[in-house]
Amino acid sequence: MSTTPASPHDMTIRHLDIDLSQGFEAHWNGGDAYRSQVFNALSFMFPVGEQFFIDAVRHFLPEVERQGNAALAKDIKLFAGQEATHRHLHQQYNDHLLALGYDAWVERTLQRVMHLTRNAPPKFKLAITVAYEHFTALLGDGLLRHASWSERMTPMMRALWQWHAAEESEHKAVAMDTYNAVGGGYLMRVSLFLLISIEFNIWVAIQTAKMLRRDGMLFKWSTHRSALGFWLGRDGVAWHTLPHWLAYFKPHFHPWQHNNLALLERWRQQNAQTYRAVAARP
After folding, report:
1. What is the three-class DSSP state of 246?
2. How crowded is the C-beta side of 123, counted as CA atoms within 13 Å?
3. In the Cβ-directed half-sphere of 193, how many Cα atoms lie within 13 Å?
4. Is 190 exposed, middle or buried (CB count within 10 Å of its CB: 0-12, 13-18, 19+)?
5. Do β-strands 275-280 and 12-16 pair in parallel, antiparallel, or remain unpaired?
């Protein structure tokens, strides 16, 4: 079991000061079809996924409280609050994408998969959550670390995605700490991570391709050039995520072994005017 502290920093539930009801252009990321639609594809996954994560982690709250682990119990509640806020805003985001005529294929796919797990053991669902939380933490770290990932976004979308990235970084260890606290094993953790690594990337690729096809941009050279740069260029997603992806297979892996508190503090200082704190870890 890891001895790394559960959350060596503040956790805060925030109300983000943006208005998605005003809508946005589909290609809001500097007019780049690929770099816009890959984020839009991710957004389609969040409402269903985040509700699953909330339920999976919160299921073990009574057990954590019986253990007398007050700090982790508080973190579970804040985790649920942050994820619920993400789910709410991304549902508004996705409603606008639907109004633009895009098909939420990945959302339906994820709903079917989550339905298949409805009778699975709670610890199995928690291991799924730990895996997905590692992916969102990796992407969140990249958004906070590399200016090139967000510098062409519109101000509203940059605020949304960096806020989401910051909170994913803040609570990146909560699911893992809960899994460790209730006796979760190594084999199930890494086996499900391998499966989800395949599923997650395939689903995002298919959803992105469907949206690009609707735009008439799927077979454009500019789209493929953008995708190559996004994944394999300087500060590319593949180069950023691979070392942290591999780290997950360490027997005593813990998310805070990759300490990005400085990135979080920089985001807090630069963006304090964009949100209102609702609740925080004392």
Report:
1. helix
2. 12
3. 21
4. middle
5. antiparallel
Query: Residues with Cβ < 8 Å from 12, sequence gap 6 or more?
Result: 78, 167, 170, 277, 278, 279, 280, 281
Tokens of residue 135, six digits = 């992916």
Q: What pTM, to 2 d.p., does this model score?
A: 0.94
* pLDDT tens profile 30-75: 999 999 999 999 999 999 999 999 999 999 999 999 999 999 999 9
- Residue 6 CA neighbour count, 13 Å, CB half: 21
Distance CA 57, CA 79 (A): 9
- Asked whether 156 and 254 are in contact (CB, 8 A), the reply is no
Bridge partners of residue 280, in order along the sequence: 12
> What does DSSP assign to residue 21?
G
pLDDT in tens, 132-164: 999 999 999 999 999 999 999 999 999 999 999
Query: Secondary structure of the chain: what % helix, strand, coil (to 5)?
Result: 70, 5, 25
Contacts of 260 (CB under 8 A, 6+ apart): 141, 144, 145, 169
Token pair, residue 53, equals 């994560």
